[in-house]
């Protein structure tokens, strides 16, 4: 898997438009503004590949990126309070529609901001992944905003809150500083091989 050779494929506004899955898929989920676009750009070494925005809550789409032997699926960021009810419904339709399809789910990278307790929607997402028995890893984002000691404390607290076992895969990342990026690449490589 060459992470430097990933290209944008297509965006979809409804799950009915999704094309059948023909390669293992690595999906990225998380609340709006969690740092998903920044993490994708860092993973793939490409500044503008996924759009980083200062204003959260952009239109919900599922974006597909193609790599060698795997696809990367950028799920719409959830939980932005200021979007309309219909936009929230579109978000649910997209995410639920994606996971309800018969696809080659290799891994879900569930992003959670390391600074805060997980939101209800984060909890729902991770409960769903656990109950559906989907392979997933929790990526804690924006680690550079906390000291090492605070990071360890938050990591333990989030494991408890999300009811993940001590050995549950959880990686501490910072797109700003590059922390955890190689570890996440290793986890992805193993999941798609
Ligand atoms: P998305 O909405 O989940 O795609 O989040 P973005 O990647 O657009 O990032 C949201 C905001 O968080 C932007 O202002 C980013 O610059 C900032 N951000 C993202 N990742 C990091 C990080 O690792 N460290 C810090 N300090 N800020 C980050």
Automatic annotation (TrEMBL):
Question: What do the Gene Ontology cellular component annotations say?
Answer: cytosol
Highest taxon above the source species: Bacteria
Instruction: List the GO biological process terms.
Output: division septum assembly
For activity, the cofactor(s) needed are: Mg(2+)
- Gene Ontology terms, MF aspect: GTP binding; metal ion binding
| Domain named EngB-type G: residues | 22-193
* Keyword list, A-Z: Cell cycle, Cell division, GTP-binding, Magnesium, Metal-binding, Nucleotide-binding, Septation
Q: What task does this protein carry out?
A: Necessary for normal cell division and for the maintenance of normal septation.
The UniProt entry's sequence similarity note says: Belongs to the TRAFAC class TrmE-Era-EngA-EngB-Septin-like GTPase superfamily. EngB GTPase family.
The protein's name? Probable GTP-binding protein EngB
**What broad taxonomic lineage does this protein's source fall under?**
Bacteria, Bacillati, Actinomycetota, Coriobacteriia, Eggerthellales
């Amino acid at each position: 898997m060459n992470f430097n050779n990933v290209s944008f494929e297509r965006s979809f506004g409804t799950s009915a438009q999704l094309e059948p899955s023909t390669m293992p898929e690595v999906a990225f989920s998380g609340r709006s503004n969690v740092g998903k676009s920044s993490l994708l750009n860092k993973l793939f070494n490409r500044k503008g590949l996924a759009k980083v925005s200062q204003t959260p809550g952009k239109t919900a789409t599922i974006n597909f990126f193609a790599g060698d032997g795997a696809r990367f699926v950028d799920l719409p960021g959830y939980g932005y309070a200021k979007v309309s009810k219909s936009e929230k419904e579109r978000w649910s339709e997209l995410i639920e529609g994606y996971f309800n399809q018969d696809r080659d789910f290799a891994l879900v990278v569930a992003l959670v901001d390391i600074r805060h307790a997980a939101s209800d929607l984060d909890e729902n997402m991770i409960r769903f992944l656990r109950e559906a028995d989907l392979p997933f890893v929790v990526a804690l984002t924006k680690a550079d905003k906390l000291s090492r000691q605070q990071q360890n404390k938050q990591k333990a607290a989030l494991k408890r809150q999300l009811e993940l076992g001590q050995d549950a895969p959880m990686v501490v990342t910072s797109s700003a500083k590059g922390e955890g990026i190689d570890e996440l690449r290793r986890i992805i490589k193993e999941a798609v091989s």
